[in-house]
Amino acid sequence: MLMGFTVWPLLRLSSRRRGAARVQRAVSASMRVFVWLMKSLGLLTWEVRGLEKLQPRGQFVVANHPTLIDVVFLISLLPEVDCIVKQALWRNVFLRWPVSWAGYISNESGEGLVAACAAALRDGRSLVVFPEGTRTRPGQLMSLQRGAAQIALAAGCDFRPVTITCDPITLYKGNAWYRVPDRRPHWILAVGDPVRVGDFATNGEPAPLAARHLTQALARWFESSVSRQQGEMRRETRPDG
Amino acid sequence: MNSTKEIFEQLRSVLHELFEIDPARVTLEAHLYNDLEIDSIDTIDLILRLKELTGRKIQPDQFRHVRTVGDAVNAIEALLHHKPAAA
């Protein structure tokens, strides 16, 4: 809150685009402080695999979305990244200025949103999207919206997938944040190799069909990587079972 | 493509061609978004295709209230029976 009135306005003093990049770096830094604080308080632990793959700019980062704080981890790893923010936050007194100064994209309209995201990527900026659109309900199959595929097709870029798992699962959809699990939760964020658009969308295919096929391919990719990673975490924590 | 039935059949084949929707699922009562998973971006492509097929200009407004396949058939019918806009 204090930052809302002090840090953010200062960071913005310069050209709009450079100002936005600086605000994004500050958001990223504050997320890093947050996750380190959570760790030092003994509330959670995490590990990141393949962090170096996130270094190049202009990447379309897509991740599955098991918990409330996935975006906090992701932004803490990406110093400059655009993301989509709920339109409602533009009406929030404390957040409206930071989100607009960071140049974050509002989810106001479907068509405008895809175009704005594709434009950010073509500009060489990185973008992070959760293709599920909301957190996964534990025990249910992941269901992907087609927006991420539509953005990738419009921008002509590949996906950089990040597989997020948490064990024991906490902060999931429908779980109150104060219901703390019996063990300290551990997150794994594994940065994968690119999922290439060209491998799944054939040339000349109508755009809506291409978006469907690409979405199915991405869903299969995440289903197998998430179940592999979850299996590995369970084996580590419960070697007997 | 004139009678209601013909329009319906044509729409069925367009939905299959553009979105791979099984024609058996396309009924007059089927909801475009809830039942057939046609999202707002798909709608734009659908309207473009209908423009080509009917040769008529379509204002997005004319499809704003379309929710079901039946609504879409009615909207196309109204479009066809309406005199083409003066070029």
Radius of gyration of chain B: 12 Å
Number of beta-strand segments of chain A: 7
Instruction: Examine the coordinates and then state which fold CATH places here, giving the name of the CATH topology of chain A.
Output: Glycerol-3-phosphate (1)-acyltransferase
CATH class of chain B: Mainly Alpha
CATH architecture of chain B: Orthogonal Bundle
CATH class of chain A: Alpha Beta
What is the string of helix and strand elements of chain A? HHHEEHEHEHEHEEHH
Query: Structural class of the secondary elements of chain A?
Result: alpha/beta
CATH 4th-level superfamily of chain B: ACP-like
* N-to-C SSE string of chain B, H for helix and E for strand: HHH
Structural class of chain B: mainly alpha
Shape of chain A: globular
Give the end-to-end Cα distance of chain B, rounded to a whole number of Å: 22 Å
Overall pLDDT metric of chain A: 87
* Name of the CATH architecture of chain A: 3-Layer(aba) Sandwich
Number of helices of chain A: 9
Largest interface: A-B, 14 and 11 residues
> Can you summarize the main beta sheet of chain A?
7 strands, mixed
Overview of the molecule:
The complex is a heterodimer of chains A (241) and B (87). With 241 residues, chain A is α/β, with parallel strands linked by helices. Chain A has a single domain (2-237), classed as Glycerol-3-phosphate (1)-acyltransferase. Chain A is 44% helix and 14% strand. Chain A has nine helices and seven strands, in the order H-H-H-E-E-H-E-H-E-H-E-H-E-E-H-H. Chain A has a seven-stranded mixed β-sheet, with helices on both faces. The mean pLDDT of chain A is 87. Chain B has a single domain (4-81), classed as ACP-like (Non-ribosomal Peptide Synthetase Peptidyl Carrier Protein, Chain A), CATH 1.10.1200.10. Chain B is an all-alpha fold and 87 residues long. Chain B starts with a helix and ends in a 6-residue tail after the last helix. In chain B, 51% of the residues lie in helices and 0% in strands. The chains are: A alpha/beta (241), B mainly alpha (87). The A-B interface holds A 109-111, 114, 145-147, 150, 206-209, 211-212 and B 17-20, 39-42, 44-46.
